[in-house]
Amino acid sequence: MRKIVVTGGAGFAGSHIVDEVCRHFSDAKVVVFDKMTYAGDVRNISHHLFPNRVQLLVGDVADLDMCRRVVKDADLVIHAAAESHVDNSFGNSLEFTRTNVLGTHALMEACRQEKVRKIVHVSTDEVYGQVMEGAASENEVLRPTNPYSSSKAAAEMILQGYLQSYHEPIVIIRANNLYGIRQFPEKIIPRFICHMLTGRKLTLHGNGTNRRHYLSAQDFAEAVVFVAEKGEVGEVYNIGTTEEYTNLQVAELISKAFDKPSREVITYIPDRPFNDGRYSVSWDKLMHMGWKPKNNLSDDIGMLVDWYRDNFARYPELFGELPASAAVEVEVAGLLPVQEVSNGLAKGLSS
Ligand SMILES: NC(=O)c1ccc[n+]([C@@H]2O[C@H](COP(=O)([O-])OP(=O)(O)OC[C@H]3O[C@@H](n4cnc5c(N)ncnc54)[C@H](O)[C@@H]3O)[C@@H](O)[C@H]2O)c1
User: Fold this and answer.
1) In total, how many domains does the chain have?
2) Where residue 153 sits, what CATH number does that domain have?
3) 130: Cβ below 6 Å to ligand 1?
4) Measured CA angle at 246 (ends 240, 252), to 5 deg
């Protein structure tokens, strides 16, 4: 591989993909293409930017001309850029369609025009809709239920057109919910950890019985690279784990990590307009090819708590300052100001 592009590489999942791409393809030029929305953070990839290992290009995947410049001469494009938060999609669904559908279309068109050799499209288990029993295989009909998952399913339909009409070298992955460091604390695990750090309650939607599988972002990133190398063009691969928790169990796990009785910290709020009861995928196809998850949330929860405590200063607009009681052990060092990145090229990075 000479050049690899990761869209959305400054976001949560994207930054883990960048870690794995840099580790696995040690000689390749790695380019992150990211709009740097509220969910993108240059600190997620600063450990690669400082030694000039990765180049950051700031721009919009819905901009065809920019996409063409970014993917020119790329051997591999991994498309992880997206609006990703279901709650936001209920209020701002058009932005989800713009980025997730139009953005995917513009990027695929750019890849077609620039003859990119392989494209891995990052999709989600949410495109199957709720799966109350068993597990969805890759052949299952897509039945998305909210503006986010609908936009992800719509993006996949665009890809099917590119596969059939142009024989574009596209592979699609559909992953379970992810957990890991660097996840923006709008999602349940980092939000609850930050709530515990600041003495807030853990607010559960509905009755807390909705279930999700939680896959480690590192395991996910390894699967993405695995599929990039071994995945067959036109195929879809589910990426999953057996680690399944209700939202209530997640809250209990986190309160336990802080040595607090869950009944003292959990509170309930009205549910989303629609909230899928459960997602579940079968990843036998990938397992038979040789990938399987190695990590699990209950072992990793302490590590996550430590990371969010140490990096709490990233999110002042969400949670204010860390209370003195929680801040005792905190040492925040060497954070890179976001202003270092201007439109176009990140300052000081090679072109
Ligand atoms: N996080 C999960 O649990 C999960 C699970 C399965 C699949 N996915 C998929 O993984 C991908 C990444 O999810 P995430 O959780 O890391 O999201 P995220 O919100 O943390 O990051 C998204 C990134 O995309 C960038 N971005 C947004 N709009 C853009 C645009 N128009 N042009 C260029 N960049 C743009 C953001 O700046 C950010 O860096 C998404 O495609 C999502 O559907 C996520």
Assistant:
1) 1
2) 3.40.50.720
3) no
4) 120
| Domain membership flag for residue 347 | no
Q: Which domain holds residue 16?
A: 3-184+213-243
C-alpha of residue 256 to centroid of ligand 1, in Å: 29
Let me know if 214 is a catalytic residue. no
Q: Is residue 155 part of a domain?
A: yes
CA 40 – ligand 1 centroid, Å: 8
Is 110 within a domain? yes
Domain-located, residue 111:
yes
Identify whether 315 is a catalytic site residue: no
Distance CA 64, CA 73 (A): 16
For residue 151 and ligand 1, the question of a CB distance below 6 A is answered with no
- Tell whether ligand 1 has an atom less than 6 A from the beta carbon of residue 188: no
- Does the CB atom of residue 247 touch ligand 1 within 6 A? no
* 241-244: long-range contacts, CB 8 A cutoff, minimum separation 24: 241/176, 241/213, 241/214, 241/215, 241/216, 241/293, 241/296, 242/213, 243/213, 243/214, 243/215, 243/293, 243/296, 243/297, 243/298, 244/211, 244/212, 244/213, 244/214, 244/280
Using pLDDT thresholds of 50, 70 and 90, give the confidence band for residue 326: low
Q: Which residue has the higher pLDDT, 349 or 142?
A: 142
Q: Give tens-digit pLDDT for 217-272.
A: 999 999 999 999 999 999 999 999 999 999 999 999 999 999 999 999 999 988 87
Atom 26 (ligand 1) nearest CA: 81
Q: Is the CB of 6 under 6 A from ligand 1?
A: no
- From the CA of 38, give the closest atom in ligand 1: 37
Q: 258-300: per-residue pLDDT in tens?
A: 999 999 999 998 887 778 899 999 999 999 999 999 999 999 9
